Amino acid sequence: MPNVVKGSKQERMVVVPYRPARRVIIGLLLMLGVGASAAGGFFYSYYVTIQSQRGELASREELSVQLQASELESADLHRQIAILDRSSVMDQFVTKEVQSTIMSLRERVAQLEQDIVYYRQVVSDETGETGLVISQLDIATTKVAGVYSYKLVLRQLDADGDSFLIGFVNINLVGSQGDEQMILPLREVSDQPDQLDIRLRFKYFQNIEGSLMLPEGFVPERVQIAAVSTEPVAKDINQDFSWVVEGE
């Protein structure tokens, strides 16, 4: 009988069979259970992660496709804008160039036609009038508002090709400004300051041309021309032309 201390609590002893193999089996089972649980958790986490990554990958691929489509559309729009801009610029440039060329050609044709008429009139002998005559007055618009070009042609009839016609001419604009009648000498509105007593010296004809700017509020009615020749025949001419402008 074992030694015991008097008054101490006595534990009841249980006698069990000694089975070391069972303990080993139980330990192995516990280890397998823990391992299976850990493996299950790992594979579940791996599966969830894979699915998440697949979802993210699919979303990224979809976004990538959308991005590429947007970039292609943007590039196409930029090309269209560039083409339209170039077309607009080219159209404007071509239109201006064509208009300018047409205007220049028309002016050149008109000038050539007038010169042909002048030469024909010079060499013709169909009139009995001699000496200085006013052949033609042309007034036309310009590209600048309020500015006009003018061209006066004077001829010598019965010219022999040796005698110079000597003289001078003055040009006035007659019109109104408000309720007041006005006469403006050409020198006051012309771009050439020496348009007073314009000198004449020619054998067949002489052109007097330039540009003029009307004062604000001035309404022209007619052009007054006073020409005088001293050689080879003394002659005075006073003639009025209506204010008729080509291009209006």
What would you say about this model in short?
Helices cover 44% and strands 31% of the residues. With 248 residues, the protein is an alpha+beta fold. The protein folds into two domains: 21-95; 129-242, Immunoglobulin-like.
Structure write-up:
With 248 residues, the protein is α+β, with helices and mostly antiparallel strands. The protein has 2 domains: 21-95; 129-242, Sandwich (Immunoglobulin-like). Helices cover 44% and strands 31% of the residues. The chain has 2 helices and 8 strands, in the order αββββαββββ. The chain has helices at residues 20-123, 186-189; strands at 131-141, 147-157, 165-177, 180-185, 198-202, 205-213, 218-231, 235-242. Strands 3, 4, 5, 7 and 8 form a 5-stranded antiparallel beta sheet that branches. The chain has a 3-stranded antiparallel beta sheet with strand order 1-2-6, covered by helices on one side. The model is unreliable at 124-128 (pLDDT under 50).
Descriptive labels:
2 helices, Immunoglobulin-like, alpha+beta, single chain, 248 residues, three-stranded antiparallel sheet
Overall average pLDDT:
75
CATH architecture level-2 label of the largest domain: Sandwich
Give the helix tally.
2
Q: What's the end-to-end separation, in Å? A: 148 Å
Low-confidence stretches: 124-128
Topology, element by element:
Layout: H1 20-123, E1 131-141, E2 147-157, E3 165-177, E4 180-185, H2 186-189, E5 198-202, E6 205-213, E7 218-231, E8 235-242
Antiparallel strand pairs: 1-2, 2-6, 3-4, 3-5, 3-7, 7-8
